[in-house]
Amino acid sequence: MDLIDETIAAIAPPDEAAMRDARDHQARLTKPPGSLGVLEEVSIRLAGLAGHCPPPLPVPAAVAVFAADHGVHAQGVTPWPQEVTAQMVANFLAGGAVVNAFAAQVGAEVTVVDVGVAAELDPAPGLLRRKIASGTADLTLGPAMTMDEARRAVAVGIEVARDRVSAGARCLLTGDMGIANTTASAALIAAFTGLPPERVTGRGTGIDDATHARKVEIVAAGLARHGLPAGDGADPLEVLAAVGGLEHAAIAGFVLGAAALRVPVVLDGVIAGAAALVAAALCPDVVGACVAGHRSAEPGHTAAIDALGLRPLVDLELRLGEGTGALLALPLVQGAVRVLHEVATFDSAGVSGKDAGDL
Ligand SMILES: O=C(O)c1ccc[n+]([C@@H]2O[C@H](COP(=O)([O-])O)[C@@H](O)[C@H]2O)c1
Ligand SMILES: Cc1cc2nc[nH]c2cc1C
Q: How far is the CA of 337 from the centre of ligand 2 (A)?
């Protein structure tokens, strides 16, 4: 068995008994039942993932920003030059990007992973050089990746998840950087959900109506070129190789790796949503490890998290990527679990429950 198969084999469904314990415990805490809304559901899901209640506090946290370039950039789907990918990687490493500010705000470690940046990057502290290829090929002309490249990029993500957890992380967050990657994301989301390109293709970093119309055409052409959506029997890795990016592949692996280790993974925006669809197609139980950090402004992101059955914690019209939406959600996830550890029960605190018979 290779690393991908071994990782998938290690993923199991949520532990129902632990979820029941968490639900019962929530009902005994000194608050009206259900008053923490969606956060109660998060705490119950994380108990199911851990296999016991309370689950470990998701502290410390580590965000991995997977960076890669895209051959479909040549089709004019984004106003930004491709070299911005490498330039932003340098900015992340210098500590000057929004991801750095938000990570500092919530005490998360930042790792940047070059899984497919077109330019050669010099060694730097905080940079993992795991380049599989110097960007993908143009998905409208042929497969974006070979199957071997796709598998090796997924393996990179699995290894990064494993290494961050070995280094002590108890919560993983996805991040991405890749000019043109919202086009590949839209193609993946259309391929996995069956929704038409116009429903899942957004404006990415910001494009005018004419460029958006062209982007929808490019997504449609890419899907047609590869016979997608291919239906239930399709190999998810073939779909990934056909229209995905190297960072999508690595993030799919990162999600699989987190799920195998039963460590929660907070998903960022549309790129993570597309990658999580790949991971869930490979192994539906990965969803038990996933928390949707936020809802991105990209329409395809809502389609992806709906298909995964996930509810976003933060909804601020963000469309940056880098892991920024996941980082903003992190204190919510941590607070949800801390409640199970620290809040007194009605019995222990001597607080009266509702009178029997009251409505
Ligand atoms: O996370 C999101 O939902 C998101 C939405 C729009 C844009 N982005 C970021 O913007 C870049 C891709 O945008 P584009 O327009 O070049 O496809 C890439 O670096 C992403 O991290 C990210
Ligand atoms: C400046 C810039 C920063 C980004 N961060 C993530 N994607 C990005 C795209 C651009 C263009």
A: 32
Ligand closest to Cα of 300 equals 1
Atom number, ligand 1, closest to the C-alpha of residue 176: 21
Catalytic annotation present for 322:
yes
CA-88 nearest atom, ligand 1: 19
For residue 183, give the ligand 1 atom closest to its CA.
17
Model pLDDT for residues 18-71, shown as the tens digit of each residue:
999 999 999 999 999 999 999 999 999 999 999 999 999 999 999 999 999 999
322 & 351 share domain: no
Strand partners, 66: 113, 176
Number of domains in the chain: 2
Residues 77 and 15 in one domain: no
Q: What is the ipTM of this complex?
A: 0.99
Mutation pick for ligand 1 pocket among 89, 114, 115, 181 (CB with most ligand atoms within 8 Å): 181
Which structural domain, as residue segments, surrounds residue 24? 3-55+341-356
Of 40, 159, 322, 342, the active-site residue reads 322
Task: Read off the tokens for 100.
Answer: 């750095």
Same domain, 117 and 207: yes
* 350 and 239 within one domain: no
Identify the pLDDT of residue 357: 65
For the stretch 314-350, pLDDT in tens is 999 999 999 999 999 999 999 999 999 999 999 999 9
